[in-house]
Every structure is written in structure tokens, then in C-alpha cells.
Amino acid sequence: MSQIITLSEFIMQRQKDFPYATGELTSLLNDISIASKIVNRDVNRAGLVDILGAKGEKNIQGEDQQKLDVIADEAFINAFLSGGEVCGIASEENDDFVAFDNEQSKNGKYVVLFDPLDGSSNIDVNVSIGTIFSIYRRKSPVGGLATKEDMLQKGTEQVAAGYVIFGSSTMLVYSTGKGVNGFTLDPSIGEFCLSHPNIKMPETGRMYSMNEGNLDRCDPGLKDYVQYCREDDPATKRPYSGRYIGSLVADFHRNLLKGGIYIYPTTDNWKEGRLRLLYECNPLAFIAEQAGGLATDGHQRILEIEPKELHQRCGYFVGSKQMVEKAMSCLKDKVEA
Ligand code: AHG
Ligand code: MN
Ligand code: MN
Predict the structure, then answer these.
(1) Whose CA is nearest to atom 6 of ligand 1?
(2) Ligand 1 pocket check: which of 69, 124, 214, 274 to mutate, most ligand atoms within 8 Å of Cβ?
(3) From the CA of 61, which ligand is nearest?
(4) Atom 15 of ligand 1, nearest CA residue
(5) Contact 189, 307 (CB under 8 A)
(6) Of the CATH numbers 3.30.540.10, 3.40.1190.20, 1.10.10.350, 3.40.50.12780, which one belongs to the domain with range 7-196?
(7) Mean predicted lDDT score pLDDT of the chain
(8) CA–CA separation, 160 and 174 (whole Å)
(9) What is the pLDDT of residues 91-132, one digit of tens each?
(10) Mind listing the pLDDT tens digit for each residue in 178-218?
(11) Threshold 0.70, pTM exceeds
């Protein structure tokens, strides 16, 4: 039998790669792994214990909060509070950022921005969902409360990012800026085990993922790109297959492994885009780039966007390098035409 490497062992082995090797980032990644296992347990038994469905409240963005959204939010916050490496968090489910007001957390050097449950409209129908996270070093002085400035950092400043996918198996995929590695949860031992070392996103693929119901409300250049995807050309393996799960994490994960492009553009009804820069687009852009892919808003590199608000949205094109480049050139050609 080949040797199993657990996530904790792997994180320890890689600790020397971090620019500030004090062990705190190592502990923080372990907190995330523990919270992920707790959420995994709740996701798996959701139908059995009456935690499916809407909570009856809306979050700041006017979206129905699902019960599991809130359970996941609390699981991660509790893990960060007990770990003590994090001085504050921002999440999709909290109107404002949360500064942890206890001595240990105030000495924490990191902040985490996260989407506790992504794709939550898919919970009730048993389709893959996920958690997305992004880790930064704080800007404010250690010992005090976290500030908004700690949260509003450009994606290039991320020290680590990743996601958990609750699919036919549960996986945790993360990067600390030295490549991307994936771990599959072995439920029999309760450990994430290294299953996908050094993930590279294929330079091109044959799947495109977008909500085509919005196509008539999109930039005309994007219609050209979708037309390109649908055209016959055996040399470039077109027509591509359309694949849209409606859980960003799941669509991204498939494209990361198989090659493909995910698009959620600005539209007439989502003028700023639908997805959130800080806890959806940036972390997955970091993973995409680390795996050799690209992420843009159609014009600009996602990781270089200067954030102004916690729940800021943006257009999103992420995936295989050649496919994102082609989509961008269609947008540009239309502007220039
Ligand atoms: P969330 O469940 O965290 O609000 O995110 C949902 C996002 C994303 O996961 C998905 O790709 C997209 O919204 C789906 O939007 P449409 O239903 O508009 O296609
Ligand atoms: Mn989401
Ligand atoms: Mn969410």
C-alpha cells in the first residue's frame, strides 16, 4: 500500500515554505480543516436532522439565508476563535467584519475572509456545495482589534487560499503560493489525505460554464465568445460542452482538474457582477493562477482589483489560460469594432 500523507502532516512538512514560519499559519490551516470536517458532518446529515431549508432571514445582500449557511459560518468562526491565530473575519453571512475581542485573538496575525457555504441554493436538492476561504496578514498593529483595512486588501496579498467541496467525496484544495494541492476526506479515519498533489490546470479544455439564461443581458462580446464555444471545429475540440452546476466551487473544481472556463459576467441585472470579490473571486483566482490558469473580470486581473467594500462584486472569468484569453479577446474586439 502506498504511504498516506494526511493534511496535518503535509502542512507541517511545508511549514518552512512560509515567509513567516512561526507555526501560526500551520495552526490556522488546521483550524480550517477541523471546521471543514464539522461542516461536512452537518452537510451529510442535513436531511436527517431538520437543518435543510431556509432560515427565514435574509443576509445583508437580501439573499435568503439557508440554515446550513449559518451553521457553517458559526463552525468556522468558532474554530478561528478557539485557535487564536486570527484577529478578525469577514464572511458572506455577516453584514460587517467581525473583530475578535479577546486577548489571544487580538494577538493573532491573520484575518480570514470566507464564503461559509457556496452554492447554497443547491443544498435542498443534494447537489455539490462548498466553502471558500482567503487568508491575509493583518495590516493593523498586533494586540489591537482588527480593522476594515485588514479586510480590504488586494488579492495579490493573500498568503493562502482554498476551498472545500462537499461532493460525491469531500475535498480540501489549498495553496500557500507554492502550487496547489488537494486532499480527499477519508471518512473511515476522519482525515483529509493527499490525493491530488501539485495540481495543474490544463492550458485549455472543452467545457464552458455560465448561466446562459443571462446571455441576452450580457456584453455583445460575450455572445461572440459563447458562439465561438458552440461552433464546430474538430482541431480545437469544439463545440465545447456546456456544464453549469450553479455552485461556483463545484464548477471551478471540475474546470481546475479537467480544463475549462467559468464565466459570471456583469449583466443588465447584475451590473457589478454576481460573485463577491473578497471571498469568492480572489481565493479561487489565487488557486487558478497557482495552478497555471487565469482569472480576470473580463479586462483586468482579479488579484489586482483594489477592494472598496466587503461585499463588493465583480464580473468573473476564471479557468484554463487559453480559454480565458480567448474570452477576453472577444470582449476587446467588440469594444474596438
Ligand atoms: P452563494 O450560494 O454563496 O450565494 O453563491 C452562489 C453563487 C455561485 O455559487 C454560483 O455559481 C452562482 O451564485 C449562481 O448564480 P445564478 O443562479 O445566478 O447562476
Ligand atoms: Mn458563494
Ligand atoms: Mn454562500
Answers:
(1) 119
(2) 274
(3) 1
(4) 246
(5) no
(6) 3.30.540.10
(7) 94
(8) 7
(9) 999 999 999 999 999 999 999 999 999 998 898 899 999 999
(10) 999 999 999 999 999 999 999 999 999 999 999 999 999 99
(11) yes
What would the grid cell of residue 153 be?
Answer: 486588501
From residue 21, give the alpha-carbon distance in Å to each of 17, 105, 127.
8, 19, 38
279 vs 271: CA distance, rounded Å: 19
How far, in Å, from the CA of 117 to the mean position of ligand 2?
Answer: 6
Domain ranges of the chain: 7-196, 207-336
Say if strands 191-196 and 64-66 run parallel, antiparallel, or are unpaired: unpaired
Instruction: Name the grid cell of 160.
Output: 493562502
What digits encode the pLDDT tens for the residues 18-67?
766 678 988 999 999 999 999 999 998 877 666 666 666 777 777 766 78
The CATH code for residues 207-336 is 3.40.190.80
Angle subtended at Cα 287 by Cα 183 and Cα 190, rounded to the nearest 5 degrees: 15
In contact, 278 and 90? CB cutoff 8 Å: yes
Based on the number of CB atoms within 10 Å of its own CB, is 323 exposed (0-12), middle (13-18) or buried (19 or more)?
buried
